[in-house]
Design a protein that fits this description.
- The chain is α+β, with helices and mostly antiparallel strands and 169 residues long.
- The chain has one domain: Peptide Deformylase (Alpha-Beta Complex).
- The chain contains 3 helices and 7 strands.
- The strands form 2 sheets. The protein has a 5-stranded antiparallel sheet. A two-stranded antiparallel ribbon has the order 4-5.
- A hairpin with a 5-residue loop joins strand 6 and strand 7.
- The radius of gyration is 16 Å and the shape is globular.
- Bound molecules: zinc ion.
- Zinc ion (ZN) binds next to helix 2.
Amino acid sequence: MSTLPIIEFPDPRLRTKAEPVRVFDAELKQFVADMFETMYAANGVGLASTQVNVHKQVLVADMSDERNEPLALINPQILEKDGAQVYQEGCLSFPGIYADVTRALRVKVKAQDVDGNEIVVDAEGPLAVCIQHEMDHLAGKVFVDYLSPLRRTMLLKRLDKQRKQAANG
Ligand code: ZN
């Protein structure tokens, strides 16, 4: 296994729409394993393939404290969603940036596992947030797209400043 480099905003490749996965082979399994390793190494709770510059519909998540509930969704589609929640989100492509985003409280998602079997996931609360956030990545969207222009500008200035400090320090 190996960790993959994560691309960061405003890299235009984050705007790429992912293609469906059609072949469920050893290469796909290896890629999913690498995505989990990358997510865990970065202390993230979710990662979309878009963020590692692979534009296939693959996302991984693990919302557990013990980091032992890995969930991989391939070709995910939202069947139903309802309710609303505000949750403070972060993103491995926006290091150090957090913002409140309103999303559905519950989602029912149809997807495939690494073997191509159909799975249906009923998610609520933080896991529902995570799945919606990662599915957005696969559609070329990022969480700051939901913010007001003023709030977005503020956060992106902060991101820029942190990068400059990191480069100097
Ligand atoms: Zn993200």
